[in-house]
Amino acid sequence: MRIPLVLAAFAAASTAFAEPASDPALKARLDTVIDAAIAEKRIVGTVVIVSKNGEVVYRRAAGLSDREAGTAMREDAIFRLASVTKPFVTAAAMRLVEEGRLDLDAPVTRWLPDFRPRLPDGSTPEITVRQLLTHTSGLGYAFLEPADGPYHKLNISDGLDQPGLSLDENLARLSKADLHFAPGSSWRYSLGIDVVGGVLETIEGRSLSQIVRDKVTVPLGIEDTDFTVRDPSRLAKAYADGDPEPVPMTDGIAVPLMGLAATFAPSRILDVGSYPSGGAGMAGTASDVLRFLEAIRTGGAPIFKPQTVEAMVRDQVGPQSETQGPGWGFGYGWAVLTDPAPTGTPQATGTLQWGGAYGHSWFVDRENGLSVVALTSTAFEGMAGAFPTDIRNAVYE
Q1: Is residue 53's pLDDT more than 60?
Q2: Most C-beta atoms within 10 A of its C-beta, which of 96, 134, 173, 223?
Q3: Distance (Å, rounded) from C-alpha 49 to C-alpha 60?
Q4: pTM of this structure
Q5: Contact, 238 vs 249, CB < 8 A?
Q6: Using one digit for the tens of pLDDT, what is the confidence trace for 173-205?
Q7: End-to-end distance of the chain based on CA atoms, in angstroms?
Q8: Residue 190 falls in the annotated catalytic set
Q9: Quick one: DSSP state of residue 283?
Q10: By the 8 A CB rule, do 313 and 337 touch?
Q11: Catalytic pick from 65, 83, 287, 371?
């Protein structure tokens, strides 16, 4: 471990996460967006943090952590992170690449010999680690299929449901589903990071939770973000979009999204038998997520060499994949803005962005020195509704 870099990072972090600097105009804009979303009953609660050039310029917990109990949201609330997990696990994988223990272009069968999904013609192509990390493997997600799709028929978990399910069992089910395309030929959001989690566990001979702690969160001084919840009293209750207001999530709830649906089991994070889903299994705080993103924005110390970060923030799939619409490609762990012109976004070229199905969004605009985290307790408004766009626009106005 690079001790001087670690100490320098901790010193910088203690400054960056001091009391927010005064920016009355920014505060007024963001407060308006947040208050409207709560008043209109689009979200139940949220924690939003904005950092500019390493200094927190806005931080607010708003709404309720548990509406039925009347518990106010708190700044250190723990949220089920869903796909906000992916950057942390991708970072752990890239640490092993730096160490020379993981080859991005090696077939996954080097470590998981039984994971051999086929194409519809019956052939069994090799899938590389790089393809898993960039969602070009041909795998998919159940929530992106209709209810009678093959992933549903095989009872494949998206890492959000089925408490107590083991990784070996889920990978066995996933291996039986036909690939959507030949690996490397297209882009489709997928369970690839769950498979990467299995690869890392095989290499290290220990749990993904231990690996992520050792390689990523502990070096960054992150304490609350993990595949388990150390303080359940701070865990925000999960809600789903509803009319006239969001409804509390229960295990097995299917939440509609763009004509399809995702199945959730909020109890999963509290079930020690649930496999650590590399794509969706962590819980954590907005401050922890910001701390991680700031490490990426500033070059990777203390967890990465600068050249590793430069590879991670570079588009690896080509903008034709349109991972978040025209102008967006994909790096390692996030979408990468390659051309703002067709997007209508005020973000600069090279901006990194993604979200999480439980109701989260984040972005890092390195050119403008911005890191923005908006975690909510409401799916899917907090991820795919007006809320993340309104937060983004308020930051740039």
Answers
A1: yes
A2: 134
A3: 7
A4: 0.94
A5: yes
A6: 999 999 999 999 999 999 999 999 999 999 999
A7: 41
A8: no
A9: E
A10: no
A11: 83
